[in-house]
């Protein structure tokens, strides 16, 4: 008799995600102790040795709740019981920039990346599910931040792999039950102070009720298609940048305004963003409003003044060229 269907699903997902990893390499699961990452860890412990891979686990103690260190050690103990090795507890300090959710995420990913570097692991598995992807798409839609935001999380981003993006959260819960694993329910996952929690507990259920079942699956499918489109546009923009750039030296980029004007809006604005970053603008501070202001120097040229950009940059149009450089532009 074969494994429970949910167990088979999570194992298959992990096996497919690791198909590109060289034999003998160390693969790490990032585990919080919740159902998603616990099912992920158990699947990795089963699949990795059968693929000739070594498997370990990282768990992050954010120190945001009483007893977090003890819970992290409990997760580590479960991992060792599964045969995972090495197993490490990573203790981090969470800042305040960008709000509690963003700060915790930044601290967590930094710790996971540093540990993977130290352990020379080419892959870190994350337990995000189709439901997480749907929530991410809705949050991106609410921010109105464009196609890339709607594309959600990537199944593969550098060394980070997300094998479960096509699986519903119910599958990971069922897998844990079948394997007699007891997930830890993080109180933060039901705390309405967090935007994602409100989306999970209120917004998605209303959509399912009013529009019918399958909303999460449809949103995840939208994310996949949006990512494909965004990747294609980014590749087009990279090629267009090379065609438009008259010079790209140090903290100054000069582009042909005539060549820029030939491009579709979506491609041209990607080129302008790429140029601003190449000239020294901090990517996180460069907003859509900044890019649109520079775009008007190309599409609505009326002899207007330079546009100020983050990082002390200016964008100015002169003699048929667009110059982005540290102020003042000579």
Topology:
Layout: H1 5-17, E1 26-30, H2 35-50, E2 54-61, H3 68-81, E3 87-91, H4 100-119, E4 123-125, H5 130-143, H6 147-150, E5 156-157, E6 160-161, H7 169-178, H8 195-211, H9 215-244, E7 245-249, E8 252-256, H10 257-261, H11 265-279, H12 288-299, E9 307-309, E10 313-318, E11 321-326
Parallel strand pairs: 1-2, 1-4, 2-3, 4-6
Antiparallel strand pairs: 5-6, 7-8, 8-11, 9-10, 10-11
Helix pairs in contact: 1-2, 1-7, 2-7, 5-8, 5-9, 9-11, 11-12
Describe the largest sheet: 6 strands, mixed
Name the helix and strand elements from N-terminus to C-terminus, one letter apiece. Answer: HEHEHEHEHHEEHHHEEHHHEEE
Alpha-carbon Rg, integer: 23 Å
CATH topology name of the largest domain, in short, is: Rossmann fold
Provide the number of structural domains: 2
Strand order of the largest sheet: 3-2-1-4-6-5
Contiguous uncertain segments of 5+ residues? none
Strand content: 15-25%
CATH classification class of the largest domain? Alpha Beta
Termini separation (Å)? 76 Å
Q: Report the strand count.
A: 11
Protein traits:
tRNA processing; alpha/beta; 12 helices; Uridine Diphospho-n-acetylenolpyruvylglucosamine Reductase, domain 3; 330 residues; 52% helix; five-stranded antiparallel beta sheet; ATP-binding; tRNA(Ile)-lysidine synthase; Rossmann fold
């Amino acid at each position: 008799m074969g494994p429970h269907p949910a167990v088979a699903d999570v194992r298959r997902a992990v096996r497919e995600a690791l198909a590109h990893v060289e034999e003998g390499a160390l693969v790490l699961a990032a585990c919080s102790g919740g159902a998603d990452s616990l099912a992920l860890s158990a699947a990795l412990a089963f699949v990795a040795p059968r693929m000739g891979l070594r498997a370990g686990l990282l768990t992050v103690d954010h120190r945001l709740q009483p007893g977090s260190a003890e819970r992290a050690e409990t997760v580590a103990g479960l991992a060792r019981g599964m045969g995972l090795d090495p197993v490490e507890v990573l203790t981090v300090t969470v800042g305040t920039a960008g709000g509690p959710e963003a700060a915790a995420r930044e601290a967590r990913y930094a710790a996971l990346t540093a540990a993977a570097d130290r352990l020379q692991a080419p892959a870190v598995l994350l337990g995000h599910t189709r439901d997480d992807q749907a929530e991410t798409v809705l949050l991106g839609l609410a921010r109105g931040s464009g196609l890339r935001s709607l594309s959600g999380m990537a199944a593969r981003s550098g060394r980070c792999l997300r094998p479960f993006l096509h699986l519903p959260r119910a599958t990971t819960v069922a897998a844990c039950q079948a394997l007699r694993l007891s997930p830890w329910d993080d109180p933060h996952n039901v705390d309405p102070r967090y935007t994602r929690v409100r989306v999970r507990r209120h917004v998605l259920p209303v959509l399912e009720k009013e529009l019918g079942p399958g909303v999460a699956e449809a949103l995840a499918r939208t994310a996949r298609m949006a990512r494909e489109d965004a990747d294609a546009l980014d590749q087009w923009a990279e090629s267009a940048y090379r065609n438009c750039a008259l010079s790209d030296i140090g903290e100054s980029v000069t582009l042909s305004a005539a060549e820029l004007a030939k491009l579709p809006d979506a491609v041209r604005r990607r080129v302008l963003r790429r140029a601003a970053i190449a000239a020294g603008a901090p990517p996180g501070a460069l907003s859509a409003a900044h890019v649109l202001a520079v775009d008007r120097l190309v599409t609505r040229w009326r002899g207007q003044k330079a546009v100020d950009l983050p990082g002390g940059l200016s964008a100015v149009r002169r003699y048929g060229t667009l110059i982005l450089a540290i102020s003042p532009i000579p």
